[in-house]
Amino acid sequence: MILYTAMPLELVLEGIDRTYNYKEIDINDIKLVIEPIDINHGKIVRLISTNPQDYLNGELSPGKIIEFKIHQA
Q1: b vs e for 27-38, b when ≥16 Cβ sit within 10 Å of the residue's Cβ?
Q2: Residues 13, 5: contact at Cβ < 8 Å?
Q3: Which residues contact 70 (CB under 8 A, 6 or more apart)?
Q4: Kind of pairing, strands 30-36 and 41-48?
Q5: What is the pLDDT of residues 45-57, one digit of tens each?
Q6: Which residues pair with 65 in a beta bridge?
């Protein structure tokens, strides 16, 4: 692949070696992929749903910080 850009290579490849710690959770039967911030908070990365109305909910938009509870069995 050839990438033509005026940006320096260091800037283009910044963060390429970063590892992500994503978790999948269910909130009200809606599956969310989040990046944990602390024990009860996370940033929404992705919404997985077959209902188009879920994508119109501003509370579930990517980038939002949400609070969730971990249920242990």
Answers
A1: eeeeebbbeeee
A2: no
A3: 39, 40
A4: antiparallel
A5: 999 999 999 999 9
A6: 43
